[in-house]
Design goal:
single chain, globular
Length: about 425
């Protein structure tokens, strides 16, 4: 099973370049559960995406003059999961925290996922970090006994060298650290993790990277956490920078997101992937029903079997098992006739990755500047030398990024002006 989490900084009901980009990201990662932080939804607003169902928790305490919501959380659940699990909201009592429970239909396997968003300490929205994590702690204690548990989201906690376990007591693999800065949220968050015996995947599995990258700086504030004993179930964990995602999708949104995308592949005691894809893989071959031959279902042999099935049904109305057997025989008869008489439907296989999503005003100048901006970003993020040189690389990245944003707006306005005058 694949779980992704992303602080999208404003997924709302508005249809624009940014919403198009977010839907492309959702399609690109191809995950079973796509957790989202910081939505801009209000009241009972719901998001829609092909192949997924949205479950959300929108903030209720919004200023009366606010044009939009803020700080909401939610998740896109792949529809195939509903074939294998009963999916329901487990707890939405705390703003910024939502628990989703998955109860197995064909097994005793259950698991729960918590999507969290804890605002930074300097946020304009009043927040009590200690109460937030204490509420989450109580929820973990009550939910953890019901099955596997995952906690993910943006906690705005720069943990630095803080440990998420008790040294000398817990037998844990240390994590690698790339963000050495610590803040107030980090002490509370690491204490919460050690109290609940949860471990961060960041820096412990896969390749570590920054989860927030912008001209203002870089940091690690987004996490996926699982209980100590579940670490062996994690097959892979990775962090995808937005610049790499944009290059892969060939699509530049109006506003480039500053949070990276976190993804993990988890193996559970039962084969969830096989269960989830059972119905999706069940019907692969399609027959052309528009080309039904004249002799379809009218041969003597077929007519005899049809009449025999009808007779069995008529004489077995009150015997469920016999009725079911008669139906199964009739069903096999129809399928066999279709396989024999109907031709295969010719399906067009489109390579979605080959499609270009570049803007109509995109040109070589923009491409060159974008490549330069990405190159400067990589040099800055990989550098581990003296602070003065690091600041210089950051300054170069900020400069090239601002140049790209400026000429991108310039060519966009020029294109819109030409369209209006046509």
């Amino acid at each position: 099973m694949r779980l992704c989490v992303w602080n999208c900084r404003g997924w709302s009901m508005h249809k624009n370049d940014n919403s198009t980009f977010r839907n492309l990201v959702l399609e690109h990662v191809d995950c079973d559960i796509f957790a989202v932080c910081e939505t801009f939804l209000r009241d009972d607003n719901q998001l829609n995406a092909p192949g997924y169902k949205w479950i959300g928790h929108n903030r209720k305490n919004v200023h009366c003059k606010a044009r939009r919501g803020s700080g909401g959380v939610g998740a896109f659940i792949r529809l195939n999961l509903y074939d294998s699990f009963y999916v329901e909201t487990q707890d939405r009592s705390v703003e910024g925290i939502m628990w989703i429970c998955f109860k197995g239909k064909h097994s005793d396997f259950n698991f729960s996922v918590a999507i969290c968003y804890l605002p930074p300490t300097d946020s304009s929205r009043p927040s009590d970090q200690e109460k937030f994590l204490n509420d989450l702690l109580q929820q973990v204690y009550s939910i953890q006994t019901k099955g596997y548990t995952i906690i993910c989201g943006d906690f705005n906690a720069r943990c630095g060298s803080n440990t998420d376990y008790i040294e000398g007591v817990d037998d844990m693999k240390p994590r690698t650290t790339i963000d050495t800065t610590e803040n107030y949220n980090s002490d509370l968050f690491c204490e919460f993790l050690s109290d609940t015996n949860f471990a961060m995947l960041n820096g412990r599995i896969g390749i570590n990277d920054f989860t927030y990258i912008s001209p203002q700086g870089r940091s690690v504030v987004d996490y996926i956490c699982v209980p100590y004993e579940q670490l062996e179930s994690v097959l892979d964990f990775k962090i995808m920078r937005m610049s790499d995602v944009i290059n892969t999708l060939n699509y530049n949104p109006e506003s480039i997101p500053d949070h990276s995308l976190l993804s993990c592949d988890i193996k559970y005691p039962v084969n969830v992937d096989e269960m989830s894809n059972h119905y999706a893989n069940e019907v692969k071959i399609k027959r052309n029903a528009r080309k039904i031959p004249d002799d379809f279902l009218i041969s003597d042999e077929v007519r005899h079997k049809v009449l025999d099935a009808i007779e069995k049904i008529e004489h077995s109305v009150y015997l469920d098992q016999n009725v079911q057997n008669a139906y199964d025989e009739f069903h096999k008869l129809i399928i066999n006739e279709m396989e024999t008489k109907l031709p295969l439907l010719q399906q067009k296989h489109l390579n979605k990755r080959s499609k270009s999503f570049y803007k109509p005003y995109w040109n070589q100048t923009l491409q060159t500047q974008w490549n330069l901006s990405c190159e400067c970003e990589k040099k800055w993020l990989k550098f581990k030398g003296p602070p003065h040189k690091n600041n210089l690389l950051k300054e170069n990245y900020c400069t090239e990024r601002k140049v790209f944003d400026k000429i991108n707006r310039k060519f966009e306005r020029k294109y819109q002006y030409q369209k209006e005058n046509e």
